[in-house]
Amino acid sequence: MEDSAIIDLYFARSEEAIKETAAKYGKMLKGVSLRILRSIEDAEEALSDTYMKTWNSIPPTRPNIFSAFLTKIIRNVSLDKLDSMHADKRGAGMIPAILDELEECIADNRMPVPGEGMELREILNSFLEKEKPESRKIFVRRYFFGSDVKEIAEFYGIGESKVKMSLARSRERLKVCLEEEGVTV
Amino acid sequence: MKTDKNTLFRAIGEIDEKYVSEILEEDASGMSVIKSFDAAKASTNAKKKASGVKKFMMYYLPAAAALLLCAVFVKAFLFSRNTSSSTGNAASADCAAAPEANSPIAYAPMEAANDESCEEADCADLSMDAAYIADSDNEATGKPDTAGTYSDEGESMVIDGMPNPFTDCETLEEACVIAGIDLTIPDDYDFGLTRIYRAMNDKMIEVIFMDGDEEVYRIRKGLVSEFGEDISGDYNEYNTSSAVIAAGCEAELLGNSESEMMMARWNDGTYAYSITCEEPLPEATMIGIINMMMEK
Fold first, then answer.
1. Does the residue B42 lie in any domain?
2. Closest chain B residue to A84, measured at CA
3. Is residue B16 less than 8 Å (CB to CB) from chain A?
4. Is the ipTM of this complex over 0.90?
């Protein structure tokens, strides 16, 4: 079923909407959650929460790109779950490693809220816009989807060191972007 | 508890949907950007190839020609000595200078060639060709190889190609001992690359960072007294050049733009240093590598 038709089902408040969403995107969404949570059980829970949030968001929201809209929701749901798991001293996955890498982008390890400059989201979008497609995709796979370096290297048929190199260069450029927008002290 | 890096990580979750979508489409179609990587790689390889051809034409070809010329002169000189001491009249006009299998290869002496007519000189050339053929035959028949080896009454001289001044080493420590120079590896910029350690006796140390068979970048440290202030060996021309102060030294960074640096060189008076890249590195990375190399 076309995405627009599924969205129409949400607007019609038909429960078929969730069924169709699960049929079309369930597997992919579960994969996104699994990368973060590293537990099938937790990922399935996150998936259910995602359907619930989607149901509550549409309407009024009409997503432009439904798959990306769902992916963003499950990423956030999974991260929320991960936070609560950390509180319970459960779970780990590769998120700590990813966070350590991202820490390099912040000059003095503090992240003030951008004031007069652009919002963080806009800075990131602007940064991604300027990136070359290859390095942007590697960056998004690593830091949005939480893929590990090996997985990315295998997907693109390149060496792991090349992926690491690409990520390191992207982080350097992001750091410059953040500094330019005053996201450093 | 959320930290600053958490905020950034969360914010990445809010990026424009089109960036997420392009990954999802890639996953769904099973198509990756391998093609674009391949295209980029092909382009890089073409550049490297072009650069290699340029280097070959500019440096290696003249060097090889000069070596060949030297070899011919040495050969002619040795045979002129050989001929005057043993055969005396080897350059006779009957062109019978072709060597016998068990005898030293006899060429017409240069002096004779100069003194006699052009015809005789041609004969001498022909005899030299014959000697080359004889050498080839020896190789083919499994007889002792005389190529590049010239005997003169029991003495022999072997002319080899240009010797490689570098010694490949197993470890950094070994390279440091041979070079007599300490070097700090920029571990933070290792990127999981494999390393090749090389040293030049009491003169220079070099580490090449490899991604599989491809070089990513290399660092050098050598004596200013031996090599001058530039030991990079990179004679390419770059669009941008900037001077930065790193680790107390003024380093010159060269590249195609600020975000695409290809080379850095600097010195502390005693030692000259260089970083050369096969693929560009951001300026900040270059400075980071310099700082780490200069750490005591």
1. no
2. B1
3. yes
4. no
